Amino acid sequence: MLSNYKFKTEFNDVFDIREFVFDAVEKSKVKSGTCIVYTPHTTAGITVTSFWDPKGFEDLQDEICRLIPTRVDFKHQHDTPFDAAGHVKSSLLGVSMSFIIADGKLLLGHSQGIYFLDFDGPRNREIFVKIQADN
Amino acid sequence: MKKNYDNNMREQVYGLSKLGKDQYELLEPLTRKVLTTPQIYSIQKIVLTGCGDSYAASMFVKKTFEKLTKLPVEVVSALDLARHYDESQLGFAPHNPLVIAVSNSGTGARVGEAVQRVRKHGGFVLGITGNKDSVLGENSSAVLDLNIPSLPPAPGVATYFVSILSLLLLATRIGEVRGRYTMDYANVLRDEILSQCDSLIPTLDDVDLKVLSIAKQWEKNEAWDFIASGSDYATAWYSMAKVMEATGQYSMHINSEEFNHLNFFMRKTHSINTVFILSKNDAGYSRTLESIEYSHKLERPTLIITDDSSLESKYTNTLVIPESKVEEIPYIFQFFPTALLIGYVMTILGEIPGRGVEGLWDFAKDGKGVKDSKIIVL
Lengths: 135, 378
What we know:
The complex is a heterodimer.
Chain A: E1 2-8, E2 14-16, H1 18-28, E3 33-38, E4 44-50, H2 54-67, H3 81-93, E5 96-102, E6 105-106, E7 112-118, E8 124-133
Antiparallel strand pairs in A: 1-8, 2-7, 3-5, 3-8, 4-7, 5-6
Chain B: H1 8-14, H2 16-33, H3 37-42, E1 46-50, H4 53-69, E2 73-77, H5 78-84, E3 98-102, H6 109-120, E4 124-129, H7 135-138, E5 142-145, H8 158-177, H9 183-199, H10 201-218, E6 223-228, H11 232-247, E7 250-255, E8 272-278, H12 285-297, E9 302-306, E10 318-320, H13 336-349, H14 368-371
Parallel strand pairs in B: 1-2, 1-3, 3-4, 4-5, 6-7, 6-8, 8-9, 9-10
Helix pairs in contact in B: 1-13, 2-8, 2-9, 4-8, 4-11, 5-6, 8-9, 10-13, 11-13
């Protein structure tokens, strides 16, 4: 089963997409299976991090920006410096993650949240959630 | 089709929609590459320059440049930039100011002289020209190539439009790269520019019919005043220039405040064609409206070109044109009604555009009057 979710982000957003994923799992009625969360964007990424402290989200973006600063001399000049840096960040972070469904629920650690990171916001964005049942 | 009075200016106006779409496809990708990101980020001030129609195009886009780039922007005539602009304002920082010089032919001596002066003192010149080998092309730091198809000769309509189009696309690009707005919004701006090419078509025939009627009423009048404020003032300037070039008649551009200090005093009010260009969102709207009232009191033959349809019921001779749907982008075809009108008056009078550079004007053949001027790089 494939579900699509659309949303708006802010600049450097760390957007909580757990509710979308939980919704997809629930609708699927799958008891045991796998769940793939995927985004079709090239300047965004999907990750898991602790949801307890929002300051941690800022750390995430800050460190990603420290590793890949937005600069004016990227070779990709067709769009903007933010876009060029966003492509690199997205490639390194990845645009999809896989999860386990057990007893009809997503298997997540007690601190784990699933987040969409925007590297070129604010934008209109979307994710897809694919649920596959075990045989 | 008004075959009896058809003329090359009218033909160019009717070709603007297609030209706009074709030129957009050519220019949009070029405006992404002509300045590198480091060059865009180093800009601290922008100077727009040109002569004639190019100068008017610079005036038309100045406000858009300011809004989109959030940089200081000046429009400076080529003569002022070449001879009078303070030297300390050139090269005050590396590659500054960014001087954008527009000239399709690129052969005007004054623009060529101005850009040489700018570069001599450390500024950066982006030449917008159809001739890379011209004095403008060869003396520019970077060149945005124009490729305007050759058209039946006429006082500039197509070239003026393409100048505006290229400048607006550049402004959009600079603002986008500097992060003034998102890429998505930059594409909204670009889409607005492109969609205006379609919005022109439904209005053409109606306006064409009306201006022909006005042209017939006005053919015997001796002079023209074009009055506007803000960005609209560029259309007034352009229209004044076209009257001179196309009809050889006396013409003046004036803003809607100064009209009441100067032109107001002219006698023979019945024989001064008085054209107001008025956008409903122009900050000077109320003053221009007052001046329109005074023009009527003076019994001047008056025409209003506006996107404010509410004026149609208040004033005869009101031409309503489409409006822009995006605040930062003006209606790029605002000039088309006056181009049609002036083309018709030229034809009715049997006047030769540019006086055919014959007789007294013979010395200016092949543009010698503007090309052969002595170049002094100060």
